[in-house]
Design brief:
There is one protein chain. By secondary structure, the protein is an alpha+beta fold. It is built from three helices and five strands; from the N terminus they run βααββββα. The chain has helices at about 5-20, 25-35, 90, and strands at about 1-5, 45, 55-60, 65-70, 80-85. The protein has a five-stranded mixed β-sheet with strand order 1-5-4-3-2. The radius of gyration is 12 Å and the shape is globular.
Length: about 90
């Protein structure tokens, strides 16, 4: 499935990598894994609840989460819309 990055996600990614450059490779590996199999056990993909109902999250390290939604693009193809990323406390 194709990943679609929002401006907010791109900004959060840059900010997160500046704070912890070692995680950049792990995050990039996670993004590749998301394209291949969004429900891989290593991602710990799960539905969110509360104010984030309808969205999903996966893990890309000990304290790194990616928030996303399943959407359709203009051609009707399923895509993963990357919305935000950061520590558990930043994104929830």
């Amino acid at each position: 499935m194709q990943l679609v990055l929002t401006k907010k996600f791109t900004h959060a990614f840059r900010k997160f990598v500046r704070r912890d450059a070692i995680l950049q490779q792990r995050i990039e590996n996670t993004l590749r894994q998301m394209e291949t199999d969004i429900f891989a056990a290593s991602l710990s993909t799960h539905k969110l609840s509360g104010v984030l109902t309808g969205l999903w999250a996966c893990s890309c390290g000990y304290d790194c989460r990616i928030i996303f939604a399943f959407e359709k693009d203009d051609a009707g193809q399923d895509v993963i819309l990357l919305l935000d990323m950061g520590t558990h406390d930043e994104v929830y």
